[in-house]
Amino acid sequence: MDAACTVEQDEIRRAVREVVTKRRAADGVRAAVRTPAGYDAALWGALAGRLGLSGLALPEEYGGAGCGVTELALAGEELGRTLAPSPLFATAVLAAPLLLRLGTDGQRAALLPRVASGDLTAALAVPGAALGAALGLTGDNGGAWAGGGRAGGVQATAATGSWRLYGQVDQVLDGHSAGLLLVAAHTGGFARSRTLLFLVRGEAPGLVRTRRTALDETRARARLELRDVEAELLGEGAGDDVLPALADVGERAAAVLAAEAVGAADEALARTLGHVKEREQFGRPVGSFQAVKHRLADVYVAVCAARSAAYYAAWAAGAAVPPGLEGVTPEPVAGIALACALDALRTAASEAVQLHGGIGFTWEHDAHLFFKRASGDELLFGPAHRLRAYAAERAGLFTGQADAVASARVAV
């Protein structure tokens, strides 16, 4: 398999890097996260309007570019280098694919062109604190969060000509500023409980949105309180395809997240290399010491491995099959790629803090921003060991061993 990028993919990478480099300074990031929206509106206008990233993976009939997960991942890698906050992930990676897959013809025609143009931002709201569970990254997403008669989350009740939602969701990426919310809610009572997705306008009566304090400020999140809020059912309402759709979106989201983490890790490593070449100790650059070289070599190997895994995951999650691999059905590997990338980012950020010396521990330095991104993504979508455990379970890695143990016990 040729992992080289096409001319078009290289152009996407170059264009995104050119735009975000102009706002690369950490002061720009800190200023952006302190705005009411939590991101730089001018940067988002350039990314969505000028570059068309919000519609990059949407079909051309809805105003998109008709690209795939690989192109989104390449854009995410460049955004990860600067940790630039934007609603791109919540809108284009989480919400838009669900609108495309589950929405009716009318819903797609009304909403997707606005998403593609950047005029409408969207967010996915699922009950529970762990988004990774709902996306099928850390376990079967038909588990407790999806209902089954359990209390909590969001409950949906059919009303005359509409639906009414009541409940609370605590961790919604960009939920405080999104113009459209896709809310997962339980309906059907104990006997026939099922999970459906509903469309809620950002300013709907009865909806209270509160931006929450987060470890990683570059990923803004909100608490939603729904008090008899009017909602529109997404799709025809069968409900059987909601959980598979969420799991499919989870594969794509994990691939993009892995690429973002790789971009951030690569940038943290580059900044650390630049520092150890300039900082002198005992009359020589710190980077000339063998112990420092070994530590940074380990980070470099980890970043390279994570990049390979992220690129493969993006290809596997997309629909396009490269020439010569027709008929090959790639296994879902995005979870393990995300675990690899999160570990690489945590390692690169930790070494950045350590090797920058005393200044690396201060709030004024950029190193803590990378460390917070690694920790924040693990809290939202991981942790890494659970991503690996579920990937091993899906692959049947320990099935043979378990059968052998059971046979041995019977024999005894």
Automatic annotation (TrEMBL):
Domain of life: Bacteria
Domain Acyl-CoA dehydrogenase/oxidase N-terminal span(s) in chain numbering: 7-119
Keyword set, alphabetical order: FAD, Flavoprotein, Oxidoreductase
Co-factor requirement: FAD
Domain named Acyl-CoA dehydrogenase/oxidase C-terminal: residues: 255-394
Family statement drawn from the similarity comment of this UniProt entry: Belongs to the acyl-CoA dehydrogenase family.
Protein name per UniProt: Acyl-CoA dehydrogenase
